[in-house]
Specification:
The chain is an alpha+beta fold and 463 residues long. The chain folds into 3 domains: 2-43 and 233-303 and 414-462, FAD/NAD(P)-binding domain (3-Layer(bba) Sandwich), CATH 3.50.50; 47-88 and 305-412, Polyamine Oxidase, Chain A, domain 2 (Alpha-Beta Complex), CATH 3.90.660; 106-213, protoporphyrinogen ix oxidase, domain 3, CATH 1.10.3110.10. The protein is built from 18 helices and 22 strands. It has a 7-stranded mixed sheet. A hairpin with a 2-residue loop joins strand 9 (107-108) and strand 10. The longest helix has 17 residues, at 446-462. The protein is globular. The two termini are 14 Å apart.
C-alpha cells in the first residue's frame, strides 16, 4: 500500500485527493491523509446566502475555456449544476477621466479585431488608435528573454493601453500590476503570436479567419459557475473523500526524508508516508520544506503573493434599475481610486439575486488591498460606498454589506517566473516522491489549481 500525504485542503489539495480516490477505485493500492491547517476545507471557495442573494467571498466563477473545473464537476455528477454567464448582456466599462466608458466590441483582451468600434471608442486617444493601426505591420520577433506585460503591451500599443486596459484587466485576475508580471507566464499565447506573426492584431485576425472556416458552433459562455455557488464544488469533493483521511486544524510544521520515506510533522504528531503532495501557497510550501531542501525552499519563497479584499453589497429594485447594463467596470490606477473593479452580479449571473435586488461585488487587490487592510469592515464599506457614489452616483444605503479578506492569496508571476519554475522542477526531482500543486506555478485560476492537483496525484501513482 502506497501512503501519500496531501498538505493543503484548498481546491488543489481536494482535487489531488479526489484523483487518488479515482485511482483507488480503478485498482491502485493507494491511501492518503490530507492535512489542512484551518477549520474548513475548500480554501478561497466560500459562498454565503444573504437576503436571498448568493454572495461569493472568493472566486465567483471560472473561465469556460479551461476544461478542468468543468470536468471535475461532471465527474462529481454536478453537470446539471453548471451555469454560464449571461453573455448576451456582457458589457464592461472602464473608468476614464471620471466617467464609465464601454469597452469597444471586438477587443480580445486588449487586441482590437474590429476596426470601426475601436476607432469610434472614446476609451482611447487618437494617438493610441494610430498605434493600433501601425501595430498591424509589426514584423515577427524572436525574443530570447522575458519581459513584463507592461513593456510588451507598450511596445505594441503604447502606454495608454497599459493604463486603461492591460493593467486593470490583470489586476482583476492576478491582483498585481502589469509592470511586474511576466508576459511569458501570464500571456504565453500573446508572446507566441509576436514570435510567429509580429503583430498581435494580424495573429488574432488570422485565428478568427481559421475558425470561421470550420463548422460554426455557438460560442460557449465566457465564464462558468455552479447554481449553488463555488463552495458547493469543494463541498461535493469532500463528500466523496474518506472522512477519516481528512485532518482539519492540523498545520504541518515540516517534512523530511528519512530512510527512503517522508516524515510529516504536524503538532506533536508525526507520520510516515511514501510520497507527499504539497498543495500550499509557495511561501507556506517553502516553510514546510526548509529542512528537506533549503535550495527548493528558497526558490519557492521567492514567488511573491498579493492579498485581496472583496465586498458584497445588496440593494433594492430601485438601485437595480438605475445601474448601467453589463457585467461591471474596471478602474485604472491612474484614476486615483482604491477600488480596482466592481461586478454587477445580478447581470453576470442573474439567478444569484432575486429580480428585486441588485448584487454588487467590489474588489481591492495588491497595494490597494494592503492600504485598506488594517481598517475595520465598516470603514472598508464606507470607502466602497464613497467610491461607488463618485463612479455610479449610487447614494442608497445597502441592504447588506459583507467584507471578505484573503491574505497573500494570489500568486504573482514576476518576470523570470518560468525560469524559476525550471529551477524548482530540477530541485524537486532530487526529492523522490514529492509533487507540487497550487496556484504558484502554471495558472492561478480554479481550473488550473484543479489540473495541478490531479496531475500531482497521477505523477505519484504512476511512478
Amino acid at each position: 500500500m502506497t501512503r501519500i500525504a496531501i498538505i493543503g485542503g484548498g481546491i488543489s489539495g481536494l482535487a489531488a485527493a479526489f484523483a487518488l480516490e479515482e485511482h483507488r477505485r480503478a485498482g491502485a493500492t493507494v491511501d492518503y491523509v490530507l492535512y489542512e491547517s484551518s477549520p474548513r476545507l475548500g480554501g478561497v471557495l466560500r459562498t454565503e446566502h444573504i437576503d436571498g442573494c448568493l454572495v461569493e467571498a472568493g472566486p465567483d466563477s471560472f473561465i469556460t475555456e479551461k476544461p478542468w473545473a468543468t470536468d471535475l464537476a461532471r465527474a462529481l455528477g454536478l453537470g446539471d449544476e453548471l451555469i454560464g454567464s449571461n453573455d448576451a448582456d456582457r458589457k464592461t466599462y472602464v473608468l476614464t477621466r471620471g466617467r464609465l466608458v464601454e469597452m469597444p466590441d471586438g477587443l480580445m483582451f486588449m487586441v482590437p479585431t474590429k476596426i470601426l468600434p475601436t476607432g469610434l471608442s472614446p476609451l482611447f486617444s487618437w494617438k493610441t488608435k494610430l498605434r493600433m493601426t501601425q501595430e498591424l505591420f509589426h514584423p515577427p520577433r524572436a525574443v530570447d528573454r522575458d519581459e513584463s506585460v507592461a513593456s510588451f503591451v507598450e511596445r505594441h500599443y503604447g502606454s495608454e493601453m497599459v493604463d486603461r486596459l492591460a493593467d486593470p484587466l490583470l489586476s482583476g485576475v492576478y491582483g498585481g500590476e502589469a509592470a511586474s508580471l511576466s508576459v511569458r507566464a501570464v500571456l504565453p499565447r500573446f508572446a507566441e503570436m509576436e514570435r510567429t506573426h509580429g503583430s498581435l492584431g494580424r495573429a488574432m485576425l488570422a485565428a478568427r479567419k481559421k475558425m470561421s472556416k470550420g463548422p460554426r458552433k455557438p460560442a460557449p459562455p465566457l465564464f462558468t459557475s455552479l447554481k449553488n455557488g463555488m463552495q458547493y464544488l469543494a463541498e461535493t469533493v469532500v463528500s466523496r473523500l474518506t472522512p477519516t483521511s481528512l485532518l482539519i486544524n492540523a498545520p504541518v510544521q515540516a517534512i523530511q526524508r528519512e530512510a527512503g520515506s517522508w516524515v510529516v510533522s504536524a503538532g506533536l504528531q508525526s507520520d510516515q508516508f511514501d510520497s507527499i503532495i504539497l498543495a500550499l501557497p509557495a511561501p507556506a510550501a517553502a516553510n514546510v520544506l526548509r529542512l528537506a531542501s533549503p535550495e527548493l525552499s528558497a526558490e519557492l519563497a521567492a514567488i511573491q503573493y498579493s492579498s485581496s479584499i472583496t465586498v458584497g453589497l445588496g440593494y433594492d429594485r430601485e438601485v437595480r434599475q438605475s445601474l448601467p447594463p453589463g457585467f461591471g467596470f474596471l478602474v485604472p490606477r491612474s484614476e486615483g481610486k482604491r477600488l480596482l473593479a466592481a461586478t454587477f452580479v445580478h447581470n453576470k449571473f442573474p439567478h444569484r439575486a432575486p429580480e428585486d435586488r441588485a448584487l454588487l461585488r467590489c474588489f481591492f487587490a495588491g497595494s490597494n488591498a494592503e492600504n485598506v487592510w488594517p481598517l475595520a469592515d465598516d470603514q472598508i464599506i464606507a470607502i466602497v460606498r464613497n467610491e461607488l457614489q463618485q463612479i455610479l452616483g449610487l447614494r442608497a444605503e445597502p441592504l447588506f454589506a459583507s467584507v471578505y479578506k484573503w491574505k497573500s492569496a494570489m500568486a504573482q508571476y514576476g518576470v523570470g517566473h518560468l525560469d524559476r519554475l525550471d529551477r524548482i522542477e530540477r530541485l524537486r526531482q532530487q526529492l523522490p516522491g514529492l509533487a507540487l500543486a497550487g496556484n504558484a506555478y502554471r495558472g492561478i485560476g480554479v481550473p488550473d489549481c484543479i489540473r495541478s492537483g490531479s496531475a500531482a496525484a497521477k505523477q505519484l501513482v504512476e511512478t
